[in-house]
């Protein structure tokens, strides 16, 4: 396997513009002869599908939810970054590029990040034209707020529902194309296999989740926009249905999976209560604009928060990182929370929590301003915890939130399988080892609206496609493999529910491959995971049949894939013998607990190639070069 | 996690609508043993998870119900609890409803959304694809990617933007339809249309939009609105029926200009 990044030559500011000119075009009359399958209808998938259909391609979309509008992009709260410099505070494309490369701890590809920063401004224009109701100032102009890892205010937002509004914009554009007959939307469908013919991705096999029917779909290219794999930790801020099946099946067909160990643990989530807990809920990072994070100075202080005097509180982020304070990047804030809890200074019933306190902001700005800024988040917190954050500080704790790793893609967003493109969180490309807040929405829409419409055309224009049908042997084999797997899951008739086994997976991953990782723990995980996989295939209990709605069957298939992916994640974490971004190897830290990168040996992307069941996967390397943002130790002090 | 230190446990009786598929006859099943020892800190859907785990262990098929984000924003969940869509708590989806809203010993009847335009596909799951078709008919602004002017070139008064956002907060769950004695989708249709109609960007297609969306809602079999306001009472996002009044005004205006709009579509070639 060769990892050719295909980054165009020339100065970084000119690469994308030149590349757009040099790419092949498809004549308008010929576009309708090409078909493309888009799997996943979140920001990346919906924006790609709508834009490609507008160009004239024949598009089919697939999502497991009952409507494309429900994809989990909808839950993003805080905002979307763009280098508009509307605040006149010194922002620029170059600064957004710089902040993103630095925030990613120098483990992303410079050229991709620069393109992302360039198109960020077009995204805001596009979304406003679609009617996204961004927050505005009284003069009618767009408002901004600040976010972690940046010293300028470049985040656009729609109350605490930015992801929802951006997704509805993309979904409405998509449904418009459905209405025009240029997109066929398959809802309640789940991709089960990628079909590769003569080295090119030519379609998928999907299960109709309502009827259980196994269906083949042919196309000239396949786009995966299926999100991340953070549910490998079981408890996560992801939706319950989020899964890694599409990227995992693509991996098994030859798509390299890059940097799986880069998993983001978000610092501000509502803490865990009990065993029955099914998911964790994020409290937007935007709250850190006005909230102050603290724990008691002494261990085991069980007094209620409001009875602890100011002098006995430790505002540890402000103390350790005075320039960024409560707006330090996510990886740093999460680890700092873990540290104070490990020291026994955590708050709440479990001791796994820290305070996020709005008392100062309410005194300074008044309760109405705080309500206007964060009212829906405060309400949600109150519904879940039965506590009023206007009166007592919120309690928060880190949780699995995003995965920077994903399928390896070149500059054109094509994987190591020709004709298989990967967008949004499902690819690895832009965030390096740590994603900054408000950058996921930006990347999903950049990929979908402004990158794939160009690069897919170039692929079609440069290749010839043999006509294939669903009767091709590769489709028949993929259908047979899907049915066989379904029957196998139904035939085990074991004693454990898919959720019970998923929780076991989550415990292993969180304990040995969570916010802190070390060699001994990872080796232990690499013994426990194969054992769990064995047990899964002999102990899982799936009732009912494959020919109907069967949520246990859906869940079991997803858990089986996540267990395998978890193993690769731990292997990647073991092999990356450095700390960078969200990947914190305890062996590699300074005396005061800061991450120590090893640029000499690990300034590269690790992309894993599947070598067959029972075979060790092969680790390939794409060296990273930093010509525009020079390698430096990240400091937020 | 509850801020209150003690966690309480409830024993419930559940009467749950079970229906194998679209065509099958459904019926209520009662669960008592499976619904014992429910923590008040659980969400309503976590309670159903627990019941389902117990059913699977007994070799009985779990209850099928729709859900995804579990944070009240995706709109995929929805169950009628003792006659109330999403249950007893105001402005709260079923996934955000917590068991502390119920008393020990409570008798709960769980049904799917009931509406002709939302056929039941299994147990508590319904088919809401009619909502997608309403959006496809006109619930959008026709602007191609790449076709947008500079964002700040269009000034939008803050009050208009805020009101548009109030409408845009709709999560498309369908509780409004389930609550309406006429199974009307007017709150949904009005929220979706008025979000766009309130903004300058939405003006060029305003007439077409309201006519097309109202026609599509009729074609899907949703009933007419007769202002019972049950929809507003159950809406988890507290969308105001004021948007229905706005929609009706826009619909009236559009009807008056309909003939003009139709003759113009031929163009000058």
Short description:
The complex is a heterodimer of chains A (637) and B (269). Chain A has 17 helices and 19 strands. Chain A is of the alpha+beta class.
Low-confidence segments of chain B, given as residue ranges, are 263-269
Kindly provide the name of the CATH class of the largest domain in chain B: Mainly Alpha
- Percent of residues in beta strands of chain B: 5-15%
Query: What does the largest sheet of chain A look like?
Result: 5 strands, parallel
The CATH superfamily name of the largest domain in chain B is: Alpha-helical ferredoxin
Main interface pair? A-B, 92 and 86 residues
Per CATH, the superfamily of the largest domain in chain A is: FAD/NAD(P)-binding domain
Oligomer: heterodimer
Name the CATH class of the largest domain in chain A. Alpha Beta
Number of strands of chain A: 19
Helical proportion of chain B, percent range:
25-40%
**Radius of gyration of chain B using CA atoms only:** 22 Å
User: What count of structural domains of chain A?
Assistant: 3
Number-wise, the strands of chain B total 9
Could you please describe the fold and organization of this structure?
- The complex is a heterodimer of chains A (about 625) and B (about 270).
- Chain A is α+β, with helices and mostly antiparallel strands and about 625 residues long.
- Chain A contains 17 helices and 19 strands.
- Chain A has three domains: about 300 residues, FAD/NAD(P)-binding domain (3-Layer(bba) Sandwich), CATH 3.50.50.60; about 130 residues, Succinate dehydrogenase/fumarate reductase flavoprotein, catalytic domain (Flavocytochrome C3, Chain A, domain 1, Alpha-Beta Complex); about 130 residues, Fumarate reductase/succinate dehydrogenase flavoprotein-like, C-terminal domain (Methane Monooxygenase Hydroxylase, Chain G, domain 1).
- In chain A, helix 4 crosses helix 5.
- Chain A is globular, with a radius of gyration of 24 Å.
- The two termini of chain A are about 40 Å apart.
- With about 270 residues, chain B is of the alpha+beta class.
- Chain B has two domains: about 110 residues, Beta-grasp domain (Ubiquitin-like (UB roll), Roll), CATH 3.10.20.30; about 140 residues, Fumarate Reductase Iron-sulfur Protein, Chain B, domain 2 (Orthogonal Bundle).
- The relative contact order of chain B is 0.12.
- At the A-B interface, helix 3, helix 5, helix 6, helix 11 and helix 12 of A face helix 1, helix 2 and helix 3 of B.
């Amino acid at each position: 396997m060769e990892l050719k990044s295909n980054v165009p030559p020339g100065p970084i500011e000119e690469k994308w513009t030149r590349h757009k000119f040099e790419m092949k075009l498809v004549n308008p009359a010929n576009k309708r002869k090409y078909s493309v399958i888009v799997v996943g209808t979140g920001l990346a998938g919906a924006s790609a599908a709508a834009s490609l259909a507008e160009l004239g391609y024949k598009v089919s979309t697939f999502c497991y939810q009952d409507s494309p509008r429900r994809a989990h992009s909808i839950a993003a709260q805080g905002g979307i970054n763009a280098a508009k410099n509307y605040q006149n505070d010194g922002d620029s494309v170059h600064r957004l590029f710089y902040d993103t490369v630095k925030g990613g701890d120098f483990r992303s590809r410079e050229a991709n990040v620069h393109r992302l920063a360039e198109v960020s401004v077009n995204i805001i224009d596009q979304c406003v034209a679609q009617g996204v109701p961004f927050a505005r100032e009284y003069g009618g102009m767009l408002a901004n707020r600040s976010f972690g890892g940046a010293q300028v205010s470049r985040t656009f937002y729609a109350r605490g529902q930015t992801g929802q509004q951006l997704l509805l914009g993309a979904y409405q554009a998509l449904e418009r194309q459905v209405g025009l007959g240029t997109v066929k939307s398959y809802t309640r469908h789940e991709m089960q296999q990628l079909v590769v013919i003569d080295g090119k991705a030519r379609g998928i096999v999907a299960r109709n989740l309502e009827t259980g029917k196994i269906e083949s779909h042919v196309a000239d290219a396949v786009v995966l926009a299926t999100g991340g794999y953070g549910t490998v930790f079981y408890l996560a801020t992801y939706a319950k249905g989020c899964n890694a099946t599409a990227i995992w099946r693509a991996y098994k067909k030859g798509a390299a999976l890059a940097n799986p160990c880069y998993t983001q643990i978000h610092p501000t989530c509502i803490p865990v209560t009990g065993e029955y807990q099914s998911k964790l809920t994020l409290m937007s990072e935007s709250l850190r604009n006005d909230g102050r994070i603290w724990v008691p100075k002494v261990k085991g202080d069980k007094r209620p928060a409001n009875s602890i005097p100011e002098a006995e509180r430790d505002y540890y982020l402000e103390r350790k990182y005075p320039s960024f304070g409560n707006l330090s990047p996510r990886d740093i804030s999460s680890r700092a929370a873990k540290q104070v809890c490990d020291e026994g200074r955590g708050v709440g019933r479990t001791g796994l929590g820290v305070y996020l306190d709005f008392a100062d902001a309410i005194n300074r700005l008044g309760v109405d301003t705080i309500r206007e800024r964060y009212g829906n988040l405060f309400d949600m917190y109150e519904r879940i915890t039965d506590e009023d954050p206007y009166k007592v500080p919120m309690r928060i704790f880190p949780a699995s939130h995003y995965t920077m790793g994903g399928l390896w893609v070149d500059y054109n967003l094509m994987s190591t399988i020709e004709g298989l493109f990967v967008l949004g969180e499902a690819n690895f490309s832009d965030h390096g080892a740590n994603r900054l807040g408000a950058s996921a929405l930006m990347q999903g829409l950049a990929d979908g609206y402004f990158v794939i419409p160009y690069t897919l055309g170039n692929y079609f224009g440069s290749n010839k496609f043999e006509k294939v049908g669903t009767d091709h042997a590769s489709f028949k084999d993929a259908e047979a493999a899907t049915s066989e797997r379904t029957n196998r899951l139904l035939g085990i008739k074991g004693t454990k529910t898919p959720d019970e086994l998923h929780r076991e997976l989550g415990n292993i991953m969180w304990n040995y491959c969570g916010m802190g990782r070390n060699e001994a723990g990872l080796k232990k995980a690499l013994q426990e995971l194969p054992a769990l996989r064995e047990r899964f295939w002999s102990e899982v209990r799936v009732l009912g049949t494959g020919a109907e709605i069967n949520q246990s069957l859906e869940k079991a298939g997803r858990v089986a894939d996540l267990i395998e992916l978890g193993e690769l994640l731990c292997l990647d974490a073991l092999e990356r013998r450095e700390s960078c971004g969200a990947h914190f190897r305890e062996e590699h830290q300074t005396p005061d607990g800061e991450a120590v990168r090893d640029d000499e040996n690990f300034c590269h992307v690790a992309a894993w190639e599947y070598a067959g069941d029972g075979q060790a996967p092969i680790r390939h390397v794409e060296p990273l070069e930093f010509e525009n943002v020079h390698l430096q130790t990240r400091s937020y002090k | 996690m509850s801020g209150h230190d003690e966690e309480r446990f409830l024993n419930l009786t559940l009467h749950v609508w079970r229906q194998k598929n679209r065509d099958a006859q459904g019926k209520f099943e009662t669960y008592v043993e499976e619904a014992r020892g429910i923590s008040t800190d659980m969400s309503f859907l976590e309670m159903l998870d627990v019941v389902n785990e117990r059913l699977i262990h007994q070799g009985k098929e779990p209850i099928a119900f729709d859900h995804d984000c579990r944070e009240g924003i995706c709109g995929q969940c929805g169950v009628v609890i003792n006659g109330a869509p999403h249950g007893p708590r105001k402005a709260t989806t079923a996934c955000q409803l917590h068991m502390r809203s119920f008393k020990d010993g409570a008798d709960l009847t769980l049904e799917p959304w009931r509406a002709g335009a939302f056929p039941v596909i299994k147990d508590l799951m319904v088919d809401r694809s009619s909502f997608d078709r309403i959006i496809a008919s006109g619930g959008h602004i026709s602007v191609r990617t790449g076709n947008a002017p500079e964002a700040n070139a269009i000034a939008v008064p803050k009050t208009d933007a805020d009101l548009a956002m109030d409408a845009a907060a709709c999560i498309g769950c369908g509780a409004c339809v389930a609550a309406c004695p006429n199974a009307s989708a007017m709150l949904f249709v009005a929220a979706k249309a008025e979000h766009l109609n309130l903004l300058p960007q939405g003006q060029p297609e305003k007439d077409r939009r309201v006519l097309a969306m109202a026609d599509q809602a009729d074609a899907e079999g949703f009933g007419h609105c007769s202002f019972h306001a049950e929809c507003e009472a159950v809406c988890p996002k507290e969308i105001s029926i004021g948007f229905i009044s706005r929609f009706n005004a826009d619909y009236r205006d559009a009807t008056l200009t309909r003939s003009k709009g139709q003759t113009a579509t031929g163009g000058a070639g």
